[in-house]
Design goal:
302 residues, alpha/beta, Arc Repressor Mutant, subunit A, D-Maltodextrin-Binding Protein, domain 2, 3 domains
């Protein structure tokens, strides 16, 4: 079987973009050249690798296996290049990071300070809901993933790097706003606006309520912290959110944190990767940067 490294990169781009034209753009070749090279890869393997349905590429079983193999080879080559650069005293390469949506309130700041130190490093950041990050984690697509509730069915290298306290918020004009002590039972008459099922915040909140034998009256389930804060500000109910979701606008006076006994709920931010994945030098440097800078970032907001 005779397939070049360049052709493997092209096929990997096809798997990532879902189209021949997208693969051509990603690898800086013309579309006719990309089509010809992909046909040569299929001929070399001797099996159909993909089919086009409604202008979208769908990999066959053989194509999915080739994509996994090509990704492993590309990752190994990138790690080799980074080791060579490290030996030369250089810091450059590629870094792929996937984060759950709530982490968007602080990860870009940490990435910004990282890029300022290592401007030659190319970074791809994916901001998704928890299910989206889990899918990428299972497919081993990223160097590192950041989330608050890592899965228990995947063997992971897992490191806690920052607390993620969950607080109760209400409209600033809410009768309970400003009170110094509120019992959880007093919230039984309130309507709750919560994150969607499956999110890390929702999982931690549901687990806490279950331990307290508390059943909230659910009014809405929303998929973003911004939507929840707007709904709370509109006096549609109270909510449980990560305190990090409030750091985006420290001067927002439309919502208030309620001082409810038992809150904030203790939660943590984790940086994880599959246990069998060997971190590249760039990923190791970023992980160290994350641990150091996250503490400084948090101290500025306490």
């Amino acid at each position: 079987m005779n397939v070049t490294f360049r052709q493997l990169r092209l096929f990997l781009a096809l798997a990532d973009t879902g189209s021949v034209s997208g693969a051509a753009r990603a690898t800086h070749v013309s579309q006719p050249t990309a089509s010809m090279q992909l046909r040569e890869v299929s001929n070399a393997v001797g099996l159909p690798l993909y089919e086009v349905i409604a202008r979208r590429v769908h990999l066959t079983d053989a194509g999915q296996e080739l994509a996994r193999t090509a990704r492993d080879i590309a990752n190994a080559w990138n790690a080799f290049e980074q080791k060579v650069d490290e030996t030369k005293g250089l810091k450059r390469g590629k870094l792929r990071v996937a984060v759950v949506s709530t982490a968007k309130y602080f990860v870009p700041r940490l990435l910004g300070s990282f890029c300022a130190t290592y401007p030659e490093i190319e970074i791809a950041l994916e901001v998704l809901n928890r299910d989206g990050v889990l899918q990428r984690l299972r497919e081993n697509l990223d160097d590192l993933c950041i989330m608050s509730m890592p899965p228990t069915d995947i063997e992971l290298a897992d490191q806690v790097f920052m607390p993620n306290p969950l607080v109760v918020i209400a409209a600033s004009a809410h009768p309970m706003a400003g009170r110094q002590q509120i019992e959880l039972a007093e919230l039984s008459s309130q309507r709750f606006i919560l994150r969607e099922l499956g999110s890390g915040t929702r999982m931690a909140t549901d687990a806490f309520f279950k331990r307290q034998n508390f059943k909230p009256q659910l009014r809405l389930e929303l998929g973003s912290n911004e939507a929840i804060k707007e709904a709370v500000a509109g006096d549609l109910g109270i909510a449980v959110v990560s305190r990090h979701a409030l750091y985006a606008n420290l001067f927002d006076t439309t919502v208030s944190v309620l001082k409810v006994n038992g809150f904030p709920i203790d939660s943590q931010w984790h940086v994880v990767h599959p246990l069998g994945r060997k971190l590249s030098p760039v990923a190791k440097v970023f992980q160290e940067h994350l641990l150091t800078q996250s503490r400084r970032w948090l101290q500025q907001r306490i």
